């Protein structure tokens, strides 16, 4: 029987440098070539677990990571150059690096959204406090009021009903609290199309019309 000589493949053993260069577990601050820095947990050379990243721009994220991306619960803040302090922009759930789940986003001091997110978009149920004082609570889709919802205006009037692409659309009610009247009917692209107007809380209204609406 012929004898075939085999050669053993030489495998270089891992050196201490190889082992220490592998980022796994809790590490001190790691500085990136782009000027960003990260302090926290790693797994297989990826940010994984709890950690804090500070971008060169001054923005900061503190929370959970999964396979190198923000995933889980965390807070994203930005640096205010004039005040030299951080302001929270988003606090809530993340998935695959995007706002996903339940969270609160601060557009500014007076304009805030609290509710559900899907891949960085307001989607699901949420409440929006607008800068002018109006408040919307209801369903969203792709950052627009869409589905069932109500909006209360700063002057006290409010609408409740269906929405489509950010506009009143479908069946809805509009309460004119200052006049003591209510409109019930059909809306299309934000405009009232067909419905009935009747008195509603006329005695408590601030500026009711001179004559009440006749009962049909």
Automatic annotation (TrEMBL):
Function statement: Assembles a suppression complex (suppresome) by tethering SIRT1 and MDM2 to regulate composite modifications of p53/TP53. Confers both deacetylation-mediated functional inactivation, by SIRT1, and ubiquitination-dependent degradation, by MDM2, of p53/TP53, promoting a proliferative and cell survival behaviors. May play a role in the regulation of spermatogenesis.
Keyword Plastid appears in the UniProt entry: no
Principal cellular location given in the protein's record: cytoplasm
Domain of life: Eukaryota
Record's protein name: MORN repeat-containing protein 3
Compartment(s): Cytoplasmic vesicle, Secretory vesicle, Acrosome
Keyword Cell division: no
InterPro entries to which the protein is assigned, alphabetical: MORN (IPR003409), MORN3 (IPR052472)
């Amino acid at each position: 029987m012929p004898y075939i000589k085999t050669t053993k493949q030489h495998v270089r053993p891992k050196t201490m440098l190889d082992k220490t260069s592998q980022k796994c577990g809790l590490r001190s601050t790691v500085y990136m070539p782009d000027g960003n820095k990260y302090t926290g947990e790693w797994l297989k050379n990826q940010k994984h677990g709890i950690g804090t990243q500070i971008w060169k721009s001054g923005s900061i994220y503190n929370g959970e990571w999964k396979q190198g991306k923000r995933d889980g619960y965390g807070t994203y803040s930005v640096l205010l150059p004039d005040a030299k302090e951080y302001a929270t922009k988003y606090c809530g759930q993340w998935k695959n690096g995007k706002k996903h789940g339940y969270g609160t986003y601060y557009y500014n001091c007076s304009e805030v959204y609290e509710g559900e997110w899907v891949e960085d978009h307001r989607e699901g149920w949420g409440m929006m406090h607008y800068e002018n004082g109006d408040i919307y609570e209801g369903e969203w889709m792709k950052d627009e009021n869409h589905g069932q919802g109500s909006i209360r205006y700063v002057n006290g009037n409010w609408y409740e009903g269906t929405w489509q692409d950010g506009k009143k659309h479908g069946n809805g009610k509009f309460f004119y609290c200052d006049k003591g009247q209510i409109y019930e009917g059909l809306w299309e692209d934000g405009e009232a199309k067909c419905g009935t107007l009747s008195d509603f809380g006329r005695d408590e209204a601030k500026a009711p019309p001179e004559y009440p609406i006749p009962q049909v």
